[in-house]
Amino acid sequence: MTKSTLVKDYMTRAVITVTPDTPNEEVIQLMKKTGHDGFPVKTNDGVIGMITAFDLLLKKWAEHVEDIMSTDVVVADESMSLNDAARVMFRMGISRMPVINEDGALVGIITNTDIVRSHIERSTPMKVRYFKKTLEDLYDIKTKLVHQMVPIERLRPTQNRVYADELQGRTYELTRGLAEPTIVVKTGNRYILVDGHHRTVASRKLGYDEIDSYVITLDQDIKLGMEKTADKEGIFTFEDIEVIDDAQHPLIAITGPLRKDDKVIKK
């Protein structure tokens, strides 16, 4: 968890490209179909440009990509630090960079979305380390931390409710590859879910069998306070969790629509 995160760890490898002779009408349809607002322009010799929505909106209309694409393209090496890539994108005012290998071949693309995703996923280890230290101090024990996939049905939930709006958000993230790990404590042969109930419930609904997790293993079998609380509340499986749809998750409640004719949710 302490190694430097590289561009190749977060880049999208299946890159959609166009060619110089692709009609710009096709590019517009491709943007509508994929939701992407820019594509590398590629020939057999490699990347020669980028075509973006800005090019189509701000430049004089032309029939083909080669007449409107940007050729001053910044590319990233796949072994580049992700932080350095983010710094370059910020300074250059660009939202994506094609990624090339040492032979100059296109191997991926890194975007603003990938940078945000990495930030969210990398913030979890700090929370894990803090919780691990808290457990050791509280119970005067030793623990071991591993990053692994855990069968969802082996997890013991400790939260009695999840919010429908946050569940929808987590489902959106999962379907787009945001795999923020959950935090789990293994005590005895039990896997106690500490953090990540919305992610886990969303994963179950999507049909996933396992979930990416940080597992803190205790060196002795201790019944945690959160287990005792879950026992009292009758929370033993995910079927015991109530989905709240008449209230907003705290994360959602502090946001709101800008349009005046939309329902105002921010107080």
Write the layout of secondary structure elements.
Layout lengths: L6 H4 L13 H11 L3 E6 L2 E7 H6 L17 E2 L4 H11 L3 E5 L5 E6 H28 L3 E9 L3 E2 L4 E3 H12 L6 E6 L2 E6 L1 H9 L4 E9 L6 H9 L8 E3 L5 H4 L14
Give a written overview of the molecule.
This protein has 267 residues and is α/β, with parallel strands linked by helices. The protein contains nine helices and twelve strands. The protein is elongated. The model has no long low-confidence stretch (mean pLDDT 89).
Which key terms come to mind for this protein?
24% strand, alpha/beta, 12 strands, 5-stranded mixed sheet, 3-stranded mixed sheet, 267 residues
| Low-pLDDT residue spans | none
Mean pLDDT: 89
Number of strands: 12
Physical arrangement of strands within the biggest beta sheet: 6-11-9-10-7
Write the H/E string, N to C.
HHEEHEHEEHEEEHEEHEHEH
Helix content: 25-40%
Specify the overall morphology: elongated
What does the main sheet amount to?
5 strands, mixed
Strand content: 15-25%
Cα gyration radius (Å): 23 Å
Provide the structure class.
alpha/beta
Distance between the termini: 39 Å
- Count the helices. How many? 9
